[in-house]
Amino acid sequence: MDRAFSYLDVITEFCYNCYMRKQITKECPKHGMTIFKERRDKRHPDRQYWRCSKCEYESVKKRRQKIKQKLVEIHGGKCIRCGYNKSLRALSFHHRNREDKKFRLSSCNHIKWDDLLEESMKCDLLCANCHMEIEEEIGL
Question: Model pTM?
Answer without folding.
Answer: 0.72
